[in-house]
Design a protein that fits this description.
The chain is of the alpha+beta class. The chain has 2 domains: 82 residues, no CATH class; 165 residues. The chain is 22% helix and 33% strand. A hairpin with a 5-residue loop joins strand 1 and strand 2. It is elongated and about 75 Å long. It starts with 8 loop residues before the first helix and ends with a helix. The mean pLDDT is 88.
Length: 278
């Protein structure tokens, strides 16, 4: 399968040397975004929620590329090369150093955050080109429910309560379109069963087995019966005396969204790690 343009080395090289790439979330409606949108329409340069907008050094509309041609690496290379030439732009190093696109939330010292990554498995085109990310924050009480009783013995089992289960489950689906920062997921099933498999002193490990089924429409504002179903497996390491989770890992064994396979991982990240990356 032909690689998408944003994975093409020549496209990446052109963007790094001659442009300052900027992405804009659909839900944002700031003055500059609205101005650019209307200016491109007035100049006949094309518009759309998914569109390449190039503005000049003065911020004025300069050139546009529709999504169809933008998804063709050859046409995008031709477009970017011509724009750089027309603007007489001199090549240089990237203006901004590479950095994470997903900002981690603030979390307390005794409750790690969970970084979720999900993507479809059917190829590198359009929605499937890149993974989606999200952050899940459980409070100390919810993390405590992940742990066994203080006097638990090997092979003891327990279920994660509904509130914490729902928090873990409601974002387990692949990338879809979003235009507003609202949770539009309906969790129908969220079962997480834990089994104590290792116990050495105060340190322990529990195996996690999960099953999730949730409804999440691909497009916002268009109710539909789109379902994500997944079976998951993982583990949690903890200190029983301190009642602290040290490490949490959960991945899909099998996952399906409307007939398309996807994969998802949920990984705990400590506050120290998050602060060190800011």
């Amino acid at each position: 399968m032909r690689a998408g343009p944003l994975s093409n080395p020549q496209v990446i090289d052109l963007l790094n040397k001659y442009f300052v790439p900027v992405t804009s979330a659909n839900e944002l409606r700031d003055d500059d975004r609205v101005r650019i949108y209307h200016e491109f329409h007035a100049k006949g340069l094309g518009i759309g929620d998914v569109h390449v907008y190039v503005v000049g050094p003065d911020g004025a509309a300069f050139a546009g590329l529709d999504i169809g041609r933008a998804m063709d690496a050859g046409k995008e290379i031709e477009f970017l090369t011509k724009v750089a030439s027309d603007l007489h732009t001199q090549p240089g190093p990237p203006v901004f150093a590479p950095h994470p696109q997903s900002a981690a939330p603030n979390v307390p010292a005794d409750a790690p955050a969970i970084h979720l990554v999900s993507r479809k498995l059917i190829g590198k085109t359009s929605w499937n080109e890149f993974p989606s990310e999200n952050w899940i924050v459980l409070n100390k009480q919810e993390w405590d429910q992940v742990l066994p009783a203080a006097d638990a013995k090997l092979q003891a089992t327990w279920q994660l309560p509904p509130a914490a289960s729902t928090k873990l489950a409601e974002w387990i689906y692949p990338q879809t379109e979003e235009t507003r920062r609202t949770n539009r997921n309906r969790v129908d099933e969220a079962n997480f069963r834990l089994t104590l498999v290792t116990l050495k002193g105060t340190m322990g490990r529990a195996k996690i087995e999960g099953h999730v089924r949730l409804r999440h429409s691909f497009y916002p504002g268009k109710p539909s019966e789109d379902f994500a179903t997944s079976d998951l497996v993982g583990y949690v390491d903890f200190d029983l005396t301190e009642r602290l989770v040290k490490r949490f890992r959960l991945v899909t064994k099998k996952a399906d969204y409307n007939g398309t396979a996807f994969a998802c991982s949920l990984v705990s990240v400590s506050r120290e790690t998050i602060e060190g990356q800011r």
